[in-house]
Amino acid sequence: MSLFSNRVERSDIAEGDHIYSWRTLYAHHGIYIGNGLVIHFTPPPGKLTASNPFSSLSSSSSAPGRGQQRTCPNHPRCGSRKAGSGVAITCLDCFIEEGSLNRYEYGVTSSEPLLIRGGGGRTTKQSDPASTVVRRANYLFENGFGNYYLVWNNCEDFALYCKTGIFVAGVGRSGQVATYISACGIL
């Protein structure tokens, strides 16, 4: 990792890391729990509709088969989720898809830039210990994280909560929407 990129190799990630993968217009976030598995937050299968302009942004094909249960030869737990829940477990390959693997940085000093070239994440907030992060992610896998909304309850919010235990209500607390607006040239 460098000042200009949060890109990492698979061998560089550890349990409890907040990772993300760049897709066409956005980054998809999750928590690496070890053994080649990631817990992340997406809309539950069947919750995407053609009338939702953000449906292609709010899901990833790492969410099982766009409404179907995913069959993955890489890991038997890949595609696991509780009925109606947006919290899923996938293998690292399915999480990354065709994107790049990146790690979100915590505890960045205020003198370092928070946004890096190509978007991506850094925060001055401190991460809890990895065991706490993984325990939180597993708890949310079992119990859910509420309804998925691109603007105020998305995959980045899920990962930030797992890492810090802090849930900030309101629009724009994570970088997902800012990244989308920037990528589309809206502002």
From TrEMBL:
Region (Disordered): 50-83
Domain of life: Eukaryota
Family matches, as InterPro entries: LRAT_dom
Domain LRAT, chain residue ranges per copy: 18-176
Region forming the signal peptide: none
Name of the protein this chain belongs to: LRAT domain-containing protein
Organism lineage: Eukaryota, Viridiplantae, Streptophyta, Embryophyta, Tracheophyta
